[in-house]
Model the fold of this input.
Amino acid sequence: MRHQDLKDFYVTAFQQDLLNWFETHKRDLPWREDNNAYRVWVSEIMLQQTRVDTVIPYFTNFMREFPSMEALAEADEERILKAWEGLGYYSRVRNLQSAVREVVESYGGVVPNNRQEIAALKGVGPYTAGAILSIAYGLPEPAVDGNVMRVLSRVLHIDEDIMKPKTRKRFEAILYELIAKEDPSSFNQGLMELGALICTPTSPGCLLCPVREHCRAFAKGIQTELPVKIKKVKQKLKRLNVCVIEDEKGQVLIEKRPEKGLLAGLWQFVTLETEGETDFRESGIGELSEFSESLSAQSLQGPVQEVEHVFSHLKWKMDVYRLVVDHDTWQLKNLQKWVNKNEIENYAFPVPYQKIIERQL
Done:
């Protein structure tokens, strides 16, 4: 029995129009050079929360660094974090390496070709599993991401909140019937491409859309009202004082972030959280003095730079100071170390700290 949402819907015509358009208009992307499961996997993990144009150079570099699953499985974490530096959401690459190690050890280096096994790998959710199975293995498995939900919300006039898990499940059920069984790879990629290039969040290019005649929302003139999506939670503001500390030898002090939590395991300059507009000369020196006997408010320069960085749930406002200290009087705490300035590129820093490096070192 046909899914209720597909009642009176011309499935075959929709499939053919989408496939024809994709064949002609698909972008030349490096992960489309072949359907190698490892390359598809890496690209899909990178593309989570990140724009295609941003991902392209990262993907090319990552595949040069780790051309095989064995190479990634054997790499040390510092190296993979450096290759990922700037992409953000670093748990993605940690989970990727963990899952790749499992594939190498348990599956002989061959990515599983069934949903049960592949979905059990760390960091592989329903979308990633469907993308790999359909693109790499040609299996008629749904891959439901934001682009796909937006397209189908409009084409089929589905006005349920796409942020709810049950709505995603509804789209997955629809796609099991809607997907082109003879070419699920091109069908799924076509839906994603359509959402990225034509059926965009705002000002969709309906006049250029290859499936416009099938689109129920367009027929009713309500395409811009869909999809339904709940408002995001307001971002929390966190104020940080960052101190670029150098010694008389020209070395700079860096410290490693905790192994769990936001930006886990990456490097940063000495960073102290502050309440409100508290001046670092008043609050920061007191905290730093436990590591050096010679500090005073007069020792600080700045703020010499202000940096703002926005995460999905959080906004950092950072005031940057400079400080020169006596190397011998500074008491290193755990996870702190002195490094030469020309060696700092060997360490993986979050994006806001990269902005500081560009200006201050």
